[in-house]
Amino acid sequence: MSALVIAWTTAVVVTLAAAVALTVLVRQRDRVRAELARTDPLTGLGNRRALLELGEPLLARGRPLGLLLLDLDGFKDVNDTLGHAAGDEVLVQVSRVLSGTLGDRATVTRLGGDEFAVLVPDPAGEAELELLAKRLLASLAVGGFHAGVVPIDLQGSIGIALSGVDGNSLGGLLQRADVAMYAAKRSRVGVLRYDAASDPHSAGGLELLGQLRSAMEEDQLALHYQPKVSGDGSRLLGFEALVRWNHPVRGLLLPADFLPFVERTHLIHALTRWVLITALRQAATWRAQGLSTSMAVNVSAVSLDTGLLGVVEEALALTRWSPGDLVLEITETAIVDDPAGARATVAALRERGVRVAVDDFGAGSTSLGHLRGLAVHELKIDRQFVSELVAHPEDEVIVSSVIALAHRLGLVVVAEGVETVAAADRLCALGCDELQGFFFARPLPADQAMAWARAEGLTGSAVELA
Ligand code: C2E
Ligand code: CA
Ligand code: CA
Q1: What is the pTM of this model?
Q2: Domain boundary residue, one of 167, 198, 229
Q3: Which chain residues have CB less than 5 Å from ligand 2, an ion?
């Protein structure tokens, strides 16, 4: 073989080897890139893309799939108070605990923020999914999470969707699990399976939402007013406005029938505005007729943002109502969901002279910690503790402690859900400032509320209690 041929062959071999090496490298790089694109950089778990790439082929092959969507409750609090680095540290621990809990049975992915999706192939029906969800929540409860040396207690809410029944694409399952998760969070039950009846995106929910705007314009919405009386029942102190929808086809709808849908859309802001203006107009009319009371309006958690102050200003200006006679009732859950935001809004309202009440107090998972630094005026004890007060001594212990605590914090205490004379008497003896419930009156249309006040001989007096 001539030297030329040898040199030529060597060159070819070297070139081929280089080409092969390059191909291998390129493949390797592509694999790493693809892997990275599927991986959540913080936790090392799969991300949304990984979830889709894993789930879609299984669905395409007709394999049953369960999807659990987990969202941590009040995690924003960790980020807000301890900083994002601490939040990240906790998220890494959470991701380990979650994947460790289910082992090979399921794949845990992180969708972003404090939201995790768990894919369960071939689930043994809804029962197994519920069991797995509960195991996940239980694992959070004993997770022993910490940011630096600060121990962090975490809870979560999980929504469940099942292929076939709840959807046939992963996108559809995710959306439905999200609806269920939101419902679980709202009702504080921990775990919920998707239910079309309470889905704002389902045909019924969409139809209602579509009708709501015209309902506001066409006077189908109405407010009913429930009185708040003094602890001894002798004075009328105020009314609480509660929204109703006189639906042309479905009849009288209660807030529970439509608010959960509305709260998931921007329409909630229009509703809050409508309720505020209508309630204050009514209160001003009553005042002109000699019935002088405060007016309380419920504000959904989602409305508790910086825009609320503008709407309140507008309603006060339109009705010439004095801010000190307006009470905004916000639920404890709203405060827990976004403590920093709630605090800022409440401070701004207080600055403006508006009174703020914490509604459903005691029903939420946290309580006292979040009251700290929150400039509220009133505490409304959740009716679950009030309704059985006389029959259950432990409820009485809770109620009397809350009253004592609230008074020491300088807050007015309102008991809601007072249904019997015995409960009213007991609450009065315990020093409760204001009472509200069916025993005194149900929520009534405006004309009946006025008639009730007249019949009871109550003209009201907007007394400042705090
Ligand atoms: P809430 O603010 O806790 O209002 C009290 C609810 O308990 C009302 O139900 C009222 O009818 C009912 N209630 C009053 N006294 C008694 C009693 O003695 N026993 C029993 N068993 N129940 C009593 P409603 O009107 O169905 O309202 C439910 C919830 O919907 C309200 O709970 C409030 O969170 C929300 N809501 C009502 N109106 C509005 C509104 O205009 N805007 C917003 N964002 N939420 C509203
Ligand atoms: Ca309320
Ligand atoms: Ca309440």
Answers
A1: 0.70
A2: 198
A3: 298, 329, 359
